[in-house]
Amino acid sequence: MKKQYKITLSVLAAAAVVAGCATAPDSVDLDKLTADIVKASFRDKGIVKASVLDTDETNKACSAADVAGKPLDEKTAKAIEATNLKTVKWPTNGKFLGDWKEGEKLAQSGRGLTWTDKADTPNGGNCYNCHQITKEEISFGTIGPSLYNYGKIRGVADPSSAAAKPVVEYTWGKIWNSKAYNACSNMPRAGHMGILNESQVAHIVALLLDPKSPVNK
Amino acid sequence: MKTKNALTWIALGCLVSTAGWAQKSAVQSIEEYRAMLQDGNPADLFEAKGEGLWKQKRGPKNASLEQCDLGKGPGVFKGVFVELPRYFADTKRVQDLESRLLTCMETLQGLNAAEIAKTPFGKGEQNNMTALATWIAAESKDMKFSLPQAHAQEKVFYEVGKRLFFQRAGAHDFSCASCHGQDNTRIRLQDLPNLTKNPGDGVGFAAWPAYRVSNGQMWGMQQRLNDCYRQQRFPYPGFASDATVALGVYLGVNSKGSASVAPAIKR
Amino acid sequence: MQSRRQALKKTALVAGLLASTGMFPQFAFAFSKEAFEAKNLADVLKALGAGAPTESKDVTITGPDIAENGAVVPLGVSTTLTGVKQLLVLVEKNPAALIALFNVTASVEPAFSIRGKMGQSSDVYAVAVMNDGKVFFAKKEVKVTLGGCGG
Amino acid sequence: MADPMRIRAQAAGDKTTVRVLMAHEMESGQRKDAAGKLVPAWYIQEVTATHNGKPVLTAEWGPAVSKNPFLQFVVKGAKAGDKIAVTWKDSKGETRNDEATVS
Fold this sequence. Notes:
The complex is a heterotetramer.
Chain A: H1 2-19, H2 27-41, E1 42-43, H3 57-68, H4 74-87, H5 100-108, H6 127-130, H7 150-153, H8 165-176, H9 198-209
Chain B: H1 2-16, H2 21-38, H3 43-55, E1 86-88, E2 93-95, H4 97-107, H5 113-118, H6 124-138, H7 152-165, H8 176-180, E3 185-187, E4 190-192, E5 210-212, E6 217-219, H9 221-231, E7 236-237, H10 242-254, E8 264-266
Parallel strand pairs in B: 5-8
Antiparallel strand pairs in B: 1-2, 3-4, 5-6
Helix pairs in contact in B: 1-2, 3-6, 4-6, 7-10
Chain D: E1 6-12, E2 15-21, E3 44-51, E4 54-61, E5 70-76, E6 83-90, E7 95-101
Antiparallel strand pairs in D: 1-2, 2-5, 3-4, 3-6, 6-7
């Protein structure tokens, strides 16, 4: 504890000198200082290791854009999307749709991967935290768009048809790695980050696209 | 102020909701429920305990905290909360209320600050810390936030706090801004204040410490931030660590002019 | 085995405790254990030695239509009737139905507010047990939602 | 020892509304701890109130009263300056008594 403070203090003192008293704090040094403070402040707890803060280029670029208050330039955004699209694992058995009932259970659960969860806690999809999905569940979030009638609106009558293929693939890809289609999406990359496995992603695709799912009633 | 906020929110809910009137009615019912809880906030119990602890001689030095300097001189407790976190010359650090109380518990009472910081929330001295923070906050109730930004380190901490706020990482790529970066959104049925700007009187930063009915616990700002980070799938932020204090500076400066309602009662 | 001396000491301690906290001897009533373990309204009333209940508009139960959190549900019981002996608060679907029992005296209004725990959505009851043995009740449904991200 | 209660007693006309907050876990006996073990029930069973020393209310509570309980009742004939005292006793036999002056 004491030692950590000392480290931070010396860094701070240095920053104070650089920043001076009148001029605006220098951005590069602030990024470095923030990194040092993060290192000194966070520690491993339960299943969450401090190393998860050493994040990938996608997150780094998006965080920097957020701090600057302006979106990524189109070229960088496209490059990030392309990188993420390459990570999408398509269903090995060719089946994009699982069981919508299982999908609903996953959509309801926000559990897993916090430091109070166990390694064997089944992860949820967190979907209702941000999206309206079925009409029956009134406790839904609004950070993401409503997904009610998701398949119906997109004209998916038969998910196995050739006509439905682009929508089915996009839906799979979006859940697997949301950043493949929107570089700085707020949505987690469920498949890519190992939150959900292949069959779980298929269940959620079914919840959204199966004509029998309450989503499309 | 709370009601006004809720009403705006209900109106918006009607516009965007496809679930129509059933949705609106559920939201109204929950507003009624929240209103019912306002009278008789168990935070009062912690407030009373905190006041007693401030005056009580404790620790190896058998001293009270009555000479503690929370930013407006030794012993001044009225109005200090709405100006924290701030820079303290004696420690040469920017400190929030809980960090500063730690300093006073160590220097005045001879208690071990590092030990207290390591103690889990809800255990031992941390319970006393929460009660003290609740009482000090209550002594600034209805006052407007006005964090000092004159010192270079206060400015630096604001900038660091801003970077922490937008830091995306962890299994879910979440940053604070994922949930608190837009207007008029909610997670499940909880409305989410936009903390990149002033979210209004008694909202966000201006509502903590608060009593949480879901677990019957009193939480200070440190525990509030700690649990945000837990749900964000981040690792554990140290109690009164520079990261949590810097984030407090960012949120507090953004809340300039908002009235504090602490101690509040929350879901 | 507890020695007589120990037993005496204990009694003295309890008596001292009662005296020091201002507990009056007339308050030494037995806890209605059976009633607080009963599963439903009928069994609660049976345990209290009261008769069958009749629904009455003179008894009022207040509570939210939806409780955001089942851990804290504000509930109020009151009646406009005179000659009330006890007012009870019950939650039908809790593991034990009875939450609280108030012995009404002439010095207090027959109206009390408390907060109770609810495991799930359920009817909640206000029950008035009268001096003449009659029992009146009112009920209302309270829905308990799951809020927040925890799921 | 248990933490003190917060009692607020406010007179309006010839009636005094009393609001009480009690610091108590109110452990239901249904909850499991982190290790999966059932936490034994521990709750306030008896609540009594007096007005200037005269008993006005007795109540019995079960484990389904919320943690840090809140109670509101109205005492007839109590006026500013009068004393309202509240006592609770829990299932472990622990007790707490506090007093407030009617305002």
